Sequence to fold (247 residues):
Amino acid sequence: MNLVGIVAAMRVEARCITTRHLPLGEVISLGESSAICLCGMGEEAARKAATGLWAGGATALISFGVAGALDPLLRPGDLVLPESVYTERSLPVSLAWRDRVQQLLPTHIHTINGKLATSKRVLTSLIEKRELAETTGACAVDLESGAVAEVAADSGIPFLAIRAISDPIEFSPPLSLLDAVNPDGSANLGRILSLLLQRSVTLSTLLRLATELRTARSTLSTVVLHAGMELGIQPNHVITTHQNGNK
Fold:
């Protein structure tokens, strides 16, 4: 029986799939056809999660979550279903699987293909994003997909990346804010309050980040709603976009 292993770095990403509590770093079954691991941010955490899913019987792997735009035409909520992932080498995506998923999506979802790059750290400036785009030819960037793609390639199993744009190329999380983010992507409210009081970050920046993340999550929820079965996610685990938007 086929078992799809899903890697999500942040809790807000995983909640687009299931409302179950997911302990960090543990593989949790979503039924007979899929399992998920909330791994935390970064390539090493993603590699460990993907390896654990494969060791637990996964016959395909998905990197699921948000990404930053490297293409100025991409806006929050746009969906990237790449044809390859670039880390230190170019890694393949199962194009037949990707195309089946894409065909199931509603027409209002702006979907592009192209190349997805993986970075070892969060890019916090327009200059950094432009440099990565020029170096790799990628349209978007995340932290985890390269590691998941590597495990899939080395294991000889299909791989798929599903990434919704959360921040456009001209707007990125401030560097000072990164210390206020927990490993699972949740906010350290005390640290954020301190940054606000120190004026290291502005309320308008936080509100924009929250709005753009909510837009990206809506897209991810729509993907699960319409293509969940193709991803191995059973209907009883699917969260509607409306429900997810109120989490």
